[in-house]
């Protein structure tokens, strides 16, 4: 269960110069952001840029700019990260030929960069997508959903949008957005059931 | 899977929308940082069932995948501090979600103390921290021997904590295990009084449970750990996972479990009830496989009566316990003080006031089944209508929830007798003021005095009733019912309203007959009664007690009589009494119609008082008309001159009317009209047999005076034969509807008829008694072999 105040607390501690808190914040959001980036990249881009690279880059930028972030509401930090990720992806698309820059970013070994150094910490992003039980499975399931269903789940659970915000994003009424989310989850569950059988 | 089946069973779009909205609302709540539990949330939407739950779980499951694998060590597990507030920390006594309780040593005073700390998880939240401290300060102000004492509040630079009394004791239920019942009640009384002390100071514990009530070796309970649950509630972070803060919701009130309404002191009363239940039976009242089951049980099921678990528990203790465990807070004790009073009464051997509503429900459930069975048996002709009705009536009395306290009202205790005596004195006092003039109380003084008394009777009655003490409330309200018309009469008399005489004649006034009294006019009486009726109707609605239906019916009857008075009753009484009775007939019809209308509109408990009045008026009216009404007698004389206009014929005629009414009522066929039919039927045999006997005696007398007159002889003989003949008819006629009064009356008048025959026809003939002996014996033999005779007769017919 998510601890409601912890993001706020962590941010407060970062402000007081607690380096450890940033790491905790990073760990807290990495999977969510990785999933988000996975879908932001899309099929084409995924061949050019590694999800984990973008994730790393996003966090680096976030770390640099954290002082500029103002906590306003619970989902605020993630949408801020999401906007940074957008920039990073846009940059990556522009500079996809520049191997040098990419190499700079990759510091740990990962699926995308098997020749990187061995990760020191288990919480590094390198293992995120490699996990069978976790993220990879979720991505598989989401992939087998119709586009609009997948989008609904991503908006709600990954980007953390409220019902009203979702409705705005999708250009539908709140009721329609709720119904879409409901049907998406229902289908999502059905996939899960059929997996088990 | 069950939830999948649910899906397919309920494919409607409306339902889907409902679920979608609930899912979206849950999602939004989670985003806002509410630590709500999916199970708990689902409880708010019982109709959406398992599907909603499955949806929410799927939502949460995505969260689990997205959560970090490794819990960030941002909040390292707290180690025991060396010292807090200068006290040396020795160890940990216990820990919960909110924090820990540490054992510490006060080196200056050389005693052990307990230190309660706030978990670092919450300590970071300034709001919660502030509340923790504020609560400790509030606690420190409470000085009560049964509430744990606070010694010290932690400084701002230390981790949040407060130092309190170290209690060496066992949780209430464990400590009480070896105690006698009276000791347990005594212990409970102390706890309830302590909770009352808290409530007096506007604090609600919200987490009362045996574990929070420690009992030391001196058998003094100590209540601890309060207010904390309340704070967490306020922040919307109800952490209900097992073992976290609340533990199992064994002692939750339904409103607490449902998290629906804001909690008040009555929630604590429920918890006290649950504790008392466990104290006396050894097990908590609500059990469930899971927390979910348990909460459903708390919200929906009546607990098993404690006496069923342990028959040694006194019924009155069971009453107290179940009264505190009422689902509806307004049915519970309204304050801890009331509960304490009842426990004290029990200890003193006085009758307790509590009467749980669950008894009525318990009975009602079973009785409904029984009545359905009975109805089936009636339709299968296993039961007669009469048997069905009498069982039904008995069952209705069991079920009627009002009867519980009405029975208490009927019990003549000293307080009960004094209550009604007081009420009666009030009414008579007021009535005296209405009837007489007093020198000391002239002008508007009586109006002021009586209106003050009336208003206070009404106010006290309503207030006491609302507090759930119906027994007392009803006495005040009944006194009010009588005081109101008296007040109106006094006021109208004083102000001279409606003071004109009936038909402008003073001699038609009721009070003209009593010159010693204040001269209240008929109009004033009538208007006082009419204006009081709305108040009675309101009382009936307010109390939902059928006592006031009785009041309404009785007052309506009185109003009807007053209407007759205004029409000139006194004149008729002098000139033509029969007219009075004649005018009663429309009133009787009105009451029948009113009863029927009220019953048909589904208020059968109100209508049942109209019928007896209607029956009474009918009997009085028809009897009076037969006896006194001149035109009726003249009509009879003109129709049948041979009858010599004897009243007895008119009674037989009335009996026929009753018979017709009886059939009419049976056609309507509701339990109440069946009762009416039965009461009319009751009067028929007397109305037929007595006039027959009297007519026969008159005829015989006439004949004796002129023995030569053959027509008179024929008449006398006719009646002599008719009496035993009709008597036999009644005896056999009683079979059809099990009319025992027909049977008994028939036997009685048959005997009288036989004696009369003996005196005239069979004078001095031994054959007559001998024939009777033979006939009687043969009849008995025939009856003993009834079946074979009947079969033989049938064979002969073929």
Task: Tell me roughly what share of residues is in helical segments of chain A.
Answer: 55-70%
Number of helices of chain B: 34
Mean pLDDT of chain B: 82
Mean pLDDT of chain A, to the nearest integer, reads: 70
Under CATH at level 1, the class of the domain at 169-353 in chain B stands as Mainly Alpha
Low-pLDDT segments, ≥5 res of chain B: 1-10, 70-77, 228-247
Q: Could you state the order of secondary-structure elements of chain A as H and E?
A: HHHHHHHHH
Question: How large is the radius of gyration of chain B?
Answer: 39 Å
Tell me the greatest interface: A-B, 50 and 39 residues
Q: Give the low-pLDDT segments of chain A.
A: 1-5, 99-126
Q: Quick one: overall form of chain A?
A: globular
Q: What's the β-strand tally of chain B? A: 9
Explain this structure.
The complex is a heterodimer of chains A (197) and B (798). With 197 residues, chain A is an all-alpha fold. Chain A has 9 helices and no strands. In chain A, α7 (147-158) crosses α9 (174-196). In chain B, a hairpin with a 7-residue loop joins β5 and β6 (161-165). In chain B, α21 (470-495) runs antiparallel to α22 (522-543) and α22 packs antiparallel against α23 (547-567). The interface between A and B is large, with 50 and 39 residues.
What key phrases describe this protein's structure?
heterodimer; A: 197 residues; mainly alpha; Rna Polymerase Sigma Factor, Chain: A; Arc Repressor Mutant, subunit A; 69% helix; disordered N terminus; B: 798 residues; Phosphorylase Kinase, domain 1; Transferase(Phosphotransferase), domain 1; six-stranded antiparallel sheet; 9 strands; 65% helix
Summarize this structure briefly:
Chain A has 197 residues and is an all-alpha fold. Chain A has 9 helices and no strands.
Write the layout of secondary structure elements.
The complex is a heterodimer of chains A (197) and B (798).
Chain A: H1 6-15, H2 19-48, H3 51-65, H4 76-94, H5 99-105, H6 132-143, H7 147-158, H8 163-170, H9 174-196
Helix pairs in contact in A: 1-2, 2-3, 2-4, 3-4, 7-9, 8-9
Chain B: H1 2-9, H2 13-31, H3 38-43, H4 49-66, E1 83-84, E2 87-95, E3 99-106, E4 111-118, H5 120-123, H6 126-141, E5 150-153, E6 161-165, E7 170-171, H7 172-176, H8 181-200, E8 213-215, E9 221-223, H9 228-234, H10 254-258, H11 265-281, H12 291-300, H13 306-309, H14 315-324, H15 336-348, H16 358-379, H17 385-399, H18 401-410, H19 414-435, H20 445-466, H21 470-495, H22 522-543, H23 547-567, H24 569-575, H25 577-600, H26 604-607, H27 610-628, H28 630-639, H29 647-668, H30 671-705, H31 710-737, H32 740-760, H33 767-784, H34 786-797
Antiparallel strand pairs in B: 1-2, 2-3, 3-4, 4-6, 5-6, 7-8, 8-9
Helix pairs in contact in B: 1-4, 2-4, 8-11, 8-15, 11-14, 14-15, 16-17, 19-21, 20-21, 21-22, 22-23, 23-25, 24-25, 25-27, 27-29, 29-30, 30-31, 30-32, 31-32
């Amino acid at each position: 269960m998510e601890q409601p105040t912890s993001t706020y607390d962590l941010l407060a501690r970062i402000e007081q110069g607690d380096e450890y808190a940033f790491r905790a914040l990073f760990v807290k959001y990495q999977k969510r952001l990785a999933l988000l980036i996975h879908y932001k990249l899309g099929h084409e881009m995924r061949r050019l840029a590694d999800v984990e690279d973008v994730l790393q880059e996003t966090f680096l930028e976030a770390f640099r700019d954290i002082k500029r972030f103002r906590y306003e509401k619970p989902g605020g930090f993630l949408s801020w990260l999401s906007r940074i990720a957008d920039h990073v992806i846009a940059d990556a698309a522009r500079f996809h030929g520049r191997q040098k820059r990419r190499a700079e970013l990759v510091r740990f070994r990962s699926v995308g960069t098997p020749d990187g150094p061995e990760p020191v910490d288990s919480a590094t992003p390198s293992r995120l997508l490699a996990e069978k039980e976790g993220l990879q499975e979720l991505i598989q399931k989401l992939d087998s959903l119709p586009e609009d269903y997948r989008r609904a789940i991503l908006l709600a659970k990954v980007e953390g949008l409220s019902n009203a915000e979702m409705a705005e994003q999708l250009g539908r009424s709140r009721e329609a957005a709720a119904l879409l989310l409901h049907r998406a989850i229902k289908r999502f569950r059905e996939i899960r059931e059929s997996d088990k059988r | 899977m069950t939830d999948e089946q649910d899906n397919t069973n309920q494919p409607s779009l409306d339902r889907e929308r409902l679920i979608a909205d609930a899912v979206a609302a849950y999602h939004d709540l989670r985003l806002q940082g509410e630590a709500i539990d999916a199970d708990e949330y689902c409880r708010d939407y019982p109709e959406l069932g398992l599907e909603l739950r499955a949806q929410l779980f799927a939502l949460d499951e995505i969260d689990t995948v997205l959560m970090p694998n490794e819990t960030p060590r941002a909040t390292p597990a707290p180690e025991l501090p060396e010292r807090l507030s200068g006290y040396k920390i020795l160890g940990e006594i216990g820990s919960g979600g909110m924090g820990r309780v540490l054992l510490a040593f006060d080196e200056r005073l050389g005693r052990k103390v307990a230190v309660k700390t706030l978990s670092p998880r919450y300590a970071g939240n300034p709001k919660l921290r502030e509340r923790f401290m504020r609560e400790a300060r509030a606690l420190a102000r409470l000085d009560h021997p049964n509430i744990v004492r606070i010694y010290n509040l932690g400084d701002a630079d230390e981790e949040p904590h407060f130092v309190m009394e170290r209690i060496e004791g066992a949780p209430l239920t464990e400590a009480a295990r070896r105690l006698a019942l009276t000791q347990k009640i005594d212990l409970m009384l102390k706890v309830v009084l302590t909770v009352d002390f808290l409530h007096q100071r506007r604090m609600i514990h919200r987490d009362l449970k045996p574990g929070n009530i420690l009992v030391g070796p001196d058998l003094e309970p100590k209540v601890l750990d309060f207010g904390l649950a309340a704070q967490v509630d306020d922040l919307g972070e109800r952490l209900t996972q097992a073992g976290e803060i609340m533990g199992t919701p064994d002692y939750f009130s339904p409103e607490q479990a449902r998290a629906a309404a804001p909690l008040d002191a009555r929630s604590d009363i429920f918890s006290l009830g649950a504790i008392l239940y466990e104290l006396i039976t050894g097990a908590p009242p609500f059990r469930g496989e899971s927390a979910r089951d348990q909460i459903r049980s708390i919200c929906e099921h009546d607990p098993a009566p404690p006496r069923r678990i342990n028959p040694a528990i006194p019924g009155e203790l069971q009453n107290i316990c179940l009264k505190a465990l009422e689902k509806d807070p307004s049915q519970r004790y309204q304050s801890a003080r009331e509960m304490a009073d009842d426990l004290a009464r029990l200890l003193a051997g006085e009758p307790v006031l509590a009467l749980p509503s669950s008894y009525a429900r318990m009975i009602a459930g079973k009785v409904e089944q029984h009545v359905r069975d009975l109805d089936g048996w009636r339709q299968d002709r296993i039961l007669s209508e009469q048997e069905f009705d009498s069982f039904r009536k008995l069952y209705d009395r069991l079920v009627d929830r009002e009867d519980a306290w009405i029975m208490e009202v009927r019990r003549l205790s000293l307080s009960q007798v004094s209550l009604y005596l007081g009420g009666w004195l009030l009414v008579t006092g007021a009535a005296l003021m209405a009837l007489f003039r007093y020198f000391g109380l002239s002008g508007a003084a009586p109006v002021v005095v009586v209106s003050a008394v009336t208003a206070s009777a009404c106010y006290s009655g309503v207030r006491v009733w609302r507090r759930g003490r119906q027994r007392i409330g009803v006495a005040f309200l009944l006194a009010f019912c009588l005081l109101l018309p008296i007040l109106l009469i006094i006021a109208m008399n004083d102000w001279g309203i409606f003071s004109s005489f009936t038909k402008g004649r003073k001699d038609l006034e009721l009070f003209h007959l009593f010159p010693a009294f204040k001269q209240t006019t008929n109009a004033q009486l009538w208007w006082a009664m009419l204006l009081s009726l709305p108040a009675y109707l309101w009382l009936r609605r307010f109390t939902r007690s059928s006592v006031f239906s009785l009041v309404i019916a009785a007052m309506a009857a009185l109003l009807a009589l007053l209407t007759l008075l205004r029409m000139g009753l006194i004149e008729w009484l002098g000139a033509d009494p029969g007219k009075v009775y004649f005018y009663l007939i429309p009133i009787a019809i009105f009451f029948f119609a009113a009863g029927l209308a009220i019953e048909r509109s589904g208020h059968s408990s109100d209508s049942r008082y109209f019928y007896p009045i209607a029956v009474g008026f009918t009997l009085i009216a028809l009897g009076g008309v037969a006896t006194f009404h001149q035109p009726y007698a003249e009509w009879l004389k003109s129709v049948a001159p041979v009858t010599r206009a004897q009243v007895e014929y008119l009674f037989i005629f009335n009996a026929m009317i009753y018979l017709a009414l009886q059939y009419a009522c049976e056609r309507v066929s509701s339990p109440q009209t069946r009762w009416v039919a039965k009461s009319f039927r009751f009067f028929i045999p007397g109305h037929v047999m007595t006039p027959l006997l009297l007519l026969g005696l008159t005829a015989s007398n006439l004949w004796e005076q002129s023995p030569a007159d053959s027509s008179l002889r024929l008449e006398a003989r006719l009646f002599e034969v008719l009496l035993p003949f009709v008597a036999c008819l009644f005896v056999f006629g009683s079979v059809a509807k099990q009319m025992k009064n027909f049977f008994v009356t028939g036997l009685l008048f048959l005997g009288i008829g036989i004696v009369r025959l003996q005196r005239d026809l069979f004078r001095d003939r031994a054959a007559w008694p001998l024939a009777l002996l033979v006939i009687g014996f043969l009849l008995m033999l025939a009856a003993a072999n009834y079946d074979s005779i009947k079969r033989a007769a049938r064979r002969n017919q073929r």
